[in-house]
Design a protein that fits this description.
transmembrane, Diaminopimelate Epimerase, Chain A, domain 1, five-stranded mixed beta sheet, 20 helices, mainly alpha, about 725 residues, single chain
């Protein structure tokens, strides 16, 4: 940053013969007659008394001070509030100066200079903070202190004229409290200096020299003297009242702001206390819950507790900075207080959410018998649907094939396994509740197995409902294929005609024409045979959209919009069906499906939602998003199917569900397999994770002791009658 020269007019000193009695530096003293010197002495005495009165009154009001200002995108900062309605006039003068000379004047009217209080340092920080260069001039005025600074860069060719610009064009107006006139005068002086026209006097404030008579009658001089005295006193009273009122208003505003800041800081401190208490309570709750439900069951709460503790440490560190011996600016304190409040609120909310989950889990112990009865009833109802669902899947296979039908692979078998798991788990939990209480008097918790049974029932129902949903989508797509073929044929004919009759030529249309012809051939060949109508509709719509895009330059915008509107609804319906199929497949096999498939499904849903939102206003863009959504959902299905296939091979050693390792007992292994793939056990019962783990981590080895703590389920899960099947175990 280039150094600059600061022209400073010092405050009035009693021995400074070049300063006027109003406190502002004046132009060179001129010779006056003895009568005029007498008048000046009277005014000096009056001014001294008035200034003393002003200082006495001012001492009772809070002092106003301003840090170096940030101009931002403005040329004027008026925290003193002296420009009022004249601000635009000053801005117009600044704009005209910039247009005429390339020089930009920045004007700051403040109450007093503070941080630093030294005027040269204050303006230096203003220039540095605002990154001002050689063409920037700063006029800074401290209204209450009645001092000013006119700052030029050392690189500015105008710095040699700075003193004359200040004395001739700025100070005369300041001495009359003509704040706007001082700023406008500065622009006039800078323009005159830039044009080499600088000469004495540039504003109406003028110098003290004049053409008055050197002598006159004593009587008229006395009348004139008393007239000046009366006017001066009136003006002084008006100024004093105005200053007092302004300072009082500013003091009240600062007091209110201080109260607001104090309230915010008090609230931040209160939230920190609440958070600290919640953390201590939560640490105890985690210990109790781990003993009751197992470490894996409380892992989400443990993670939430760790995150909240980290937020608390960060919030306390910020609060410590607020309270240390190094003061911050008001803006910094406000920002730090807001940070403390945000950190504490988010941490408390996270703990509350997890606490509610554990409250619900504990409530299952108190309400376990009615819940188990509901589980058993629902399992019987869903079991009655299994045969009909298997028959429906078989019938669909006679008419359809392909990627959509593949989403139903294993649905019935998986549902059967989940129902078996729910039934057996509910029975074991009921047995625990009906068994005599142990000598300790503390009956083991059944909340975890009850919740697992509930989730298994819900997932089994979702698997069966998915079959009905896919069947409806395939039937609807079958009825749509013929219309899609007609639409593609119509666009294809238009494209062929356009290729030979317009400026587009064959090169621009060759690729979409070839793709459309290939899709049409496949659609005609598949007619009447086992196929995937949903996938075929998607391919036909993609071909039609590609033709529409290629033909767009030759079509009027209105026609293009109409075409997009006509295709949009069908494309969105196809995308919705594809997303639903992918969602059902992933949700009911989430224990085996990785993140890639989920990510594509999430993006497909986002694009679909966006397409629905923008469709009315931008059908062309909405159509593109709907078609991309279709493709992503189809990709999600393929990846998820690969994940499930690989999971079966990795987890069960190539021997299907059980392979060579055997199952705990007849039906038990199938039930566990359904729960594992469905993700039921992964989040509730596992001791070492979903896929990995050695024999005995939960149900292997000696039975339920590893999973539920100390053989908690007795004859239900432990010993030789539970899932362990005599301790044969299997990889889990």
């Amino acid at each position: 940053m280039p150094r600059h020269r600061v022209v400073v007019a010092d405050s009035v000193d009693g021995n400074d013969q070049s300063a006027s009695d109003d406190g502002w530096p004046d132009e060179e003293a001129t010779r006056v007659t003895t009568g005029r010197n007498a008048v000046r002495r009277v005014f000096a005495a009056l001014a001294a008394g008035a200034i003393g009165l002003a200082l006495a009154v001012g001492a009772a009001s809070p002092a106003l001070a301003d840090d170096p200002v940030d101009f931002g995108s403005s040329d004027i900062v008026d925290t003193a509030g002296v420009l009022g309605g004249d601000t635009q006039a000053v801005q117009d003068a600044i704009d005209q100066l910039q247009a005429d000379t390339g020089q930009t004047l920045l004007v700051a009217y403040v109450n007093s200079f503070e941080n630093p209080s030294d005027r040269e340092q204050w303006v230096q920080e203003v220039r540095d903070a605002n990154q001002l260069g050689a063409s920037n001039v700063v006029l800074a005025v401290a209204v209450d202190d009645r001092i000013y600074q006119l700052s030029f860069s050392d690189e500015s060719p105008l710095q040699a004229d700075s003193e004359q610009i200040a004395s001739d064009y700025v100070v005369p107006s300041l001495s009359q409290d003509d704040w706007a006139g001082a700023a406008i005068g500065a622009t006039e002086g800078i323009r005159a200096a830039s044009n080499g026209e600088l000469s004495g006097g540039g504003s109406d404030g003028g110098t003290g020299s004049g053409s008055g008579s050197e002598s006159g009658s004593g009587g008229s001089g006395a009348v004139l003297l008393w007239g000046f005295l009366v006017v001066g006193v009136i003006a002084l009273v008006i100024v004093l009242v105005s200053v007092i009122r302004k300072r009082r208003r500013a003091g009240l505003a600062r007091a209110q702001a201080a109260q607001d800041r104090a309230a915010l800081e008090q609230r931040a401190g209160s939230l920190l206390v609440q958070l600290d208490d919640a953390l201590k309570t939560s640490e105890q709750e985690v210990g109790f819950a781990a003993a009751e439900f197992g470490d894996e069951a409380v892992k989400p709460f443990t993670d939430a507790l760790a995150a909240a503790s980290a937020s608390a440490r960060q919030a306390f560190a910020v609060k410590q900075k607020l309270d240390d011996a190094f003061p911050e600016s008001e803006a910094e304190r406000a920002a730090m207080t807001a940070e403390v409040t945000s950190l504490a609120e988010q941490a408390i909310a996270g703990l509350d959410a997890r606490s509610d989950e554990f409250d619900a889990l504990r409530a299952l112990d108190d309400n376990a018998l009615p819940v188990l009865k509901t589980v058993t009833t629902d399992a019987e109802k869903l079991g009655g649907r299994l045969s009909a669902t298997e028959a429906r899947i078989a019938e669909l296979h006679t008419r359809f094939e392909g990627e959509t039908m593949s989403t139903l692979t294993g649905n019935a078998a998986q549902a059967r396994q989940l129902l078996a798991f729910a039934t057996e788990t509910a029975a074991a939990a009921a047995a625990t509740l009906s068994a005599p209480a142990p000598d300790s008097g503390h009956r083991p918790s059944v909340a975890i197995p009850v919740r697992a049974a509930q989730q298994s029932i819900g997932q089994a129902g979702q698997l069966l409902d998915a079959v009905d949903g896919v069947a409806q989508s395939l039937e609807a797509a079958t009825a749509t294929v013929a219309k899609e073929i007609d639409d593609v044929e119509r666009d294809l004919a238009e494209a062929r005609q356009t290729a030979v009759t317009t400026r587009l030529g064959e090169a621009a249309l060759a690729a979409p024409i070839a793709a459309a012809e290939q899709v049409l051939a496949a659609a005609r060949q598949a007619s009447g045979s086992r196929t995937d109508p949903l996938a075929m509709v998607r391919r036909l719509q993609e071909a039609e959209a590609a033709l529409d895009a290629a033909l767009a330059p030759s079509r009027e915008q209105r026609v293009q919009q109409e075409r997009a509107v006509a295709l949009l609804g069908r494309a969105q319906s196809t995308a919705q069906a594809q997303i639903q199929a992918a969602s059902d497949f992933i949700a009911t096999r989430r224990g085996a499906v990785g993140s890639d498939a989920r990510q594509r499904l999430s993006e497909a849903q986002r694009l679909f939602d966006s397409s629905r939102a923008i469709g009315p206003g931008d059908p062309v863009q909405a159509l593109d998003q709907a078609q991309r959504s279709q493709a992503l959902a189809a990709s999600a299905i393929q990846i998820a199917q690969t994940d499930v296939s690989g999971y079966d091979d990795d987890s069960w050693g190539g021997g299907g569900y059980g392979g060579g390792g055997g199952r705990g007992r007849s039906g038990g292994g199938d039930a566990l397999t359904g729960a594992i793939i469905g993700g039921i056990l992964g989040g509730l019962l596992t001791g070492g994770g979903g896929r990995g783990g050695d024999s005995g981590s939960i149900f292997g080895g000696g039975g339920g002791g590893g999973g539920f703590g100390g053989g908690g389920f007795g004859g239900g899960f432990g010993g030789g009658g539970g899932f362990g099947g005599g301790g044969s175990g299997g990889r889990f």
